[in-house]
UniProtKB/TrEMBL annotation:
Belongs to the binding-protein-dependent transport system permease family. FecCD subfamily. The keyword Membrane applies. The chain crosses the membrane at residues 70-88, 100-118, 130-148, 208-226, 246-279, 291-312, 318-336. This is Iron complex transport system permease protein. It comes from the Bacteria. Keywords: Cell membrane, Membrane, Transmembrane, Transmembrane helix, Transport. It is a multi-pass membrane protein. Signal peptide: none annotated.
Length: 344
């Protein structure tokens, strides 16, 4: 009981760390902005605030129109991917499960590729439609995996995973075909696929906010159900839990969260694997703590990754997917070795 009471102390700590990372993210850049000046400028935007902004007009534009929306979007994307990863690992009871398991990434990639490859012929501003196309593609990929899994006559996790692999392979092949047809658009396509927040703004935050809120609300409320699933299907059934229904609910919410994140950031790997494992080592195996802490930790993690991506080779930027791969690939090997050791 003492451990359970102290475990909840991680939540305010996670909030504090996230706040510090976001403040650092807003301050980092070519234009120097101090933390005190940033706080005063934000407070000055509150109606009837007695605090005045110490920043110039140009500095306020940099803060409010460039850095702040980018940091908020990065925190939102990181939190969505980490929460979805934790949920997938709980549902499939597999530490290697990630948010792109059921065709979401392949569907998003195909949707974005189609717009980037053919959008100029029918749209005046194809770049603005890329997030919508990626979102629709991600949801279509997951829906196809569900349909294929159901048509195969199984409702278990293994059948669903195999259906997701088949759908991902098909959609990836379709994407490669489009790239071969429109070779001249390869640079733009690969730029999106490597992930990034450089073009993100308040419009992107507003666009995905309803879907992110819906997915996260469901996931945060499913911690107790995932803890029951961890006991095994027979035990969960004896406690009155419909294991199949819970899996469908959690996977749908996690897929919605993944689609929302991918639609504005491109494909950013390893966040959904790395962050939940770190959280699990800190707070234990209960999903009522893992899910909210994964949300906060994933948000802080991606904000820090984005700082590194835009400062390491400034004024140029590294793709976020490249930076997360440098961090995540060694961690993935560690997880694989640890899983094999437990199996033997």
């Amino acid at each position: 009981m003492r451990h359970k009471r102290t475990a909840w102390l991680w939540l305010p700590l996670g909030l504090a760390v996230l706040g510090a990372c976001m403040l650092l993210g807003v301050a980092a850049g070519a234009a120097s902005l101090g933390p005190g000046d940033i706080a005063a400028a934000l407070l000055s935007r509150i109606p009837f605030s007695p605090v005045g902004s110490p920043l110039s007009g140009l500095q306020e534009s940099v803060l409010l129109e460039l850095r702040l929306p980018r940091v908020v979007l990065g925190a939102l994307v990181g939190g969505l991917l980490a929460s979805a990863g934790a949920a997938y690992q709980g549902v499939f009871r597999n530490p290697l499960a990630d948010p792109y398991l059921l065709g979401a990434a392949a569907g998003a990639g195909l949707g974005a590729t189609l717009v980037l490859a053919f959008g100029r012929e029918v749209l005046s501003s194809p770049g603005s439609v890329v997030p919508v196309a990626a979102f629709a593609g991600a949801l279509a990929g997951v829906a196809a995996a569900y349909a294929l899994g159901s048509a195969a006559g199984g409702n278990g996790t293994a059948t669903l995973v195999l259906a997701g692999v088949a759908v991902s392979s098909f959609l990836s092949a379709a994407q490669n075909l489009v790239q071969m047809i429109r070779v001249e658009e390869l640079r733009r396509i690969y730029s999106w696929m490597l992930g990034g927040l450089g073009t993100g703004g308040w419009d992107d935050v507003t666009m995905i906010a309803p879907y992110a809120a819906a997915g996260l609300l469901v996931l945060m409320g499913c911690g107790y159900l995932l803890d029951m699933l961890a006991l095994g299907d027979e035990k969960a059934l004896s406690l009155g839990l419909n294991a199949t229904g819970v899996r469908l609910l959690v996977i749908s919410a996690a897929s919605l969260a993944t689609a929302a994140a991918v639609s504005v950031s491109g494909l950013i790997g390893f966040v959904g694997i790395v962050v939940p494992h770190i959280v699990r080592r800190l707070v234990g195996t209960g999903y009522r703590m893992i899910l909210p802490m994964s949300l906060l930790s994933g948000a802080a993690f991606l904000v820090l990754v984005d700082i590194a991506a835009r400062t390491v080779i400034a004024p140029a930027e590294l793709p976020l997917g490249v930076v997360t791969a440098f961090v995540g690939a060694p961690f993935f090997v560690f997880i694989l070795r640890a899983t094999r050791s437990r199996a033997t």
